[in-house]
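Much of what follows relies on a compact textual record of a protein's fold. Here is one such record, which you should read through line by line:
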Amino acid sequence: MIYVASSWRNPYYPEVVKRLREEGHEVYDFRNPPHGHAGFHWTDVDQNAPNWTFEEYAEGLQVLNVYISNNYNRFYLEKNSIRLP
């Protein structure tokens, strides 16, 4: 399985995932994870998240929604044999 490490701001991400799948690869899509929920976005926790300080970010990590999403992504990262930056 391939995990394409990217950000929500990357306009090429959907195309990269699509092309890898078209080539027959199994790809984990963090924007559309297989557990049936929409992909995680920090603004789900706080609309001001893009402007957080480091301390506010550290506090945000304590939110259950964030914890679950991060652990789910980490599971797939550890499971994958190929990582693309």
Q: What stands out?
A: DSSP finds three helices and three strands in the chain. Residues 2-84 form one domain. The helical segments are 13-22, 54-60, 64-79.
